[in-house]
Specification:
The chain is mainly α. The chain has 13 helices and no strands. Helix 3 crosses helix 4.
């Protein structure tokens, strides 16, 4: 290790996001809500992956002879008004509800990280230009902008994902810029500059990992809300289109039959509730273990 690397690493243990991935995961597992969040999130991800490749019954094929049957050995969650197995529909819709939320948040995280960090570190006219673009995008709330985009593009699942990305990326870019500006004066970054380490190495080795971790915590906290937003748009008929399954769309389909077939509402609503709960548990725990107090 060179003298420059030694100097740059003196203050590194005091920075929470540089404490090491293994220590962070270990603290996350020991956190009460962190362990519950990890287990519940893992179970839901397995459910989504399973539903993408296998279902007990064809999820979109009607079987009117079995319409509105209650939970049984043949149909664990019962059937809907056209005789389709609800368990198969829930499994098939899991990868759309959860996978779409992860895809949207991953996209806005990447866009926001690149634009925000570039703006904060470059400064000057580029910073002003990018932030004016962000200001324009933030003049309307994200959901209102998403409705406007869907009104232009038309209702479909792909258009919904595009609309949500367009509506959310500016907020993440603004936050990433703020985090990158603060990171320039962290002790390890100042020490690295004094040691003569190259600017590119400081950015990719010191600033960017910390900004990415803090932005990732925010994205994790927003996962539950994004699942709810996707389900809400699908409930209104602006997302997944029939006959494809999605948890919000399943809720919409259950409205006319709630009094005679309550399982049609309770099952997808329970899946949405567990998804939001797992995301909040995991996000709150990750925020706690990544704090400076937890790192000491």
């Amino acid at each position: 290790m060179s003298i420059a690397e030694s100097i740059a690493g003196v203050t590194r243990p005091e920075v929470p996001h540089l404490a090491g991935e293994r220590r962070l995961l270990f603290r996350l597992w020991r956190h009460p809500s962190g362990k519950a969040g990890i287990l519940l999130t893992a179970a839901l991800l397995c459910l989504a992956l399973l539903g993408a490749v296998w279902t007990p019954w064809p999820p979109n094929a009607p079987n009117y002879a079995h319409a509105l049957q209650g939970p049984s050995a043949a149909h664990l969650f019962g059937t809907d008004s056209t005789g389709r197995d609800l368990l198969s529909r829930v499994l098939d819709g899991a990868h759309r509800s959860i996978g779409a939320a992860v895809l949207v948040l991953g996209s806005v995280f990447a866009i926001g990280l690149v634009i925000g960090t570039l703006s904060g570190l470059a400064g000057g006219w580029l910073d002003m230009l990018l932030m004016r673009l962000v200001d324009v995008m933030m003049t309307l709330p994200g959901l209102v902008l998403a409705f406007a985009v869907l009104g232009i593009l038309g209702p479909s699942f792909i258009n919904l994902l595009i609309a949500l990305i367009i509506g959310d990326w500016a907020w993440y870019a603004r936050l990433a810029r703020s985090l990158s500006l603060d990171a320039r004066w962290r002790p390890d970054v100042v020490a690295a500059q004094m040691a003569g380490i190259s600017r590119a190495r400081i950015i990719f080795g010191h600033i960017l990992p910390g900004v990415a971790l803090q932005l990732g915590i925010v994205a994790t906290l927003a996962l539950g809300g994004m699942i709810g937003a996707i389900s809400g748009f699908s409930f209104l008929g602006l997302g997944v289109q029939p006959p494809h399954a999605e948890w919000g769309a399943l809720l919409s389909e259950s409205r006319l039959f709630f009094t005679v077939a309550p399982w049609l509402l309770l099952v997808p609503a329970g899946c949405i509730f567990l998804s939001v709960l797992s995301a909040n548990l995991l996000g709150n725990a990750l925020r706690d273990v990544a704090s400076p107090k937890a790192a000491r």
